[in-house]
Design a protein that fits this description.
By secondary structure, the chain is an alpha/beta fold. It is 54% helix and 13% strand. It has a 5-stranded parallel beta sheet, sandwiched between helices. Helix 3 crosses helix 4 and helix 6 packs across helix 7. The termini are close together. The structure holds shikimate-3-phosphate.
Length: 171
């Protein structure tokens, strides 16, 4: 069983992922951290030295390695399902859950956390709101390919456990 959490930066994939992994007694993988370890550089450094296009190729390679892990919760990078056929690959790997939030909530959560996120660095709150609103329009067709779309504003953590249990019964 693999659970892949999908969604924009700041949607809580890592926080929920760590909680869910502990609750289910699964391993937890943060995709960005996996890439940072493999590359020996931070995500910001990779963007700066290699550029976004190269970063997306590195992400694609990381996804192809997820099949080596089982009983795992994976917090995926915010852009990961939106390039190549990654969304399909992720669905083939297991239970994909999109943590859906509105742009306003995302901006509130991302304030002050932009230094580690090259796509947002240097943006004012207003610029961030415009940027995220546009990005979500572009990305939601990919996020919406997830097997489960969760209203991450209201969902109690235990409901994710139910989602996982129902899914494993059916698969
Ligand atoms: C990105 C999201 C980041 C990271 C990179 C690009 C994106 O991951 O992969 O900065 O394109 O949305 P998180 O969603 O874990 O912050």
């Amino acid at each position: 069983m693999r659970i892949l959490l999908i969604g924009y930066m700041g949607s809580g994939k890592s926080t929920l992922g760590k909680w869910l992994a502990k609750r289910l007694n699964y391993a937890f993988i943060d995709m960005d951290e996996l890439i940072e370890k493999a590359e020996g550089a931070t995500i910001s450094e990779i963007f700066a030295s290699k550029g976004e296009a190269e970063f997306r190729l590195i992400e694609q390679t990381a996804i192809s390695k997820f099949k080596d892990f089982t009983n795992v919760v994976i917090a995926t990078g915010g852009g990961a399902p939106c390039f190549f056929d990654n969304a399909q690959q992720m669905n083939d790997l297991g239970l994909t859950i999109y943590l859906k939030l509105t742009p306003h909530v995302l901006v509130d959560r991302l304030k002050g956390a932009t230094h580690t996120r090259p796509l947002l660095s240097g943006k004012s709150d207003k610029e961030m709101l415009d940027f995220i609103t546009n990005k979500l329009l572009e990305r939601e067709p990919f996020y919406n390919k997830a097997k489960v779309i969760a209203d991450a504003n209201h969902l109690d953590n235990e409901l994710y456990v139910e989602i996982v249990e129902n899914y494993s019964k059916e698969n």
